[in-house]
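Hey, I'm writing a tutorial for new members on how sequence and structure tokens pair up, and I'd like a real worked example in the thread rather than a made-up one. If someone can provide the structure for the chain below, I'll link this post from the tutorial.
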Amino acid sequence: MSRWIKFSLFLFVVYGIFVGIRQEGRKNDRFAIHKIASKIPNDPAWEVPKESQSLEAIFKQPFFYLGHGLQFYAFESQDKQYVLKFLRHQRLRPRQVFESLPDVWPFQSLKRQKVEECQKRIGYIFRSLIVAYVEVPEETGLLSVHLNKTNQCYPTVQIFDKKKQPYQVLLDSTEFVLQKKATLVKPTLIQLMQKGEVEAAKIRIGQIFRLLQECAMKGVCDTDGQLIRKNNLGFLEDRAIYIDTGKLTRKESIKTKARFAQDLQRLDPLYSWLLEHYPQLAKHFEEEKAKTLDIFKS
């Protein structure tokens, strides 16, 4: 067998292994336990108040893989009432290709730049989570935000990945967020309309406007322009909340009518959808929008 044939076979085997690994990762939605672990040092800036209620009963139950966004892996509690979120730390540290570069010129500058970019991203997410938990906990459904590692404050929780593989996660050593589980906006409205519960659907639309209004009056703004398309809003039993809390920030200008009107444009995709499927709800949307804007005097 010639060297060329042997080399070709070797490349074929390596490629097969690579493809197999990628396919296996897709089956598990690319989740791996090491991706939620970090070596981020504690920082006083990331301290948050302790929870006002005991979470022991919640953490005693297992959590099952729900999905992931850009920032978090999400796991649903067995009773389907809560979502436990872990940061996707592979997106918060330099890629292996940069870490593997020798620590000499000209690579030093590139490595330092990548580290600074990751630190900036971490700071942005952590500040958003603190704003969400401290400033607007009712509007986000957050029960706990854990950013600094602790000692014997939280238990070990059992989680199951998409393939039903179990893991034990020591919460003291892991950055996590615990949030009440919300139902998505469009499926909720569809379900109500199919049942003929038009007034209940109108109430739900009003709750969306109340959410944005209450956050604005507290000087809190969400910077995500894809609010509806990314399903970043949801409903609890009695109110609407932000499901995605990773882009909330303090911004005093949101308290002005002009800036708040601009913020409401993020709901335009919902209005277009209502106009197409439920015109009577679209009309109510317009009424709620006008009523909400009237609250802002300047």
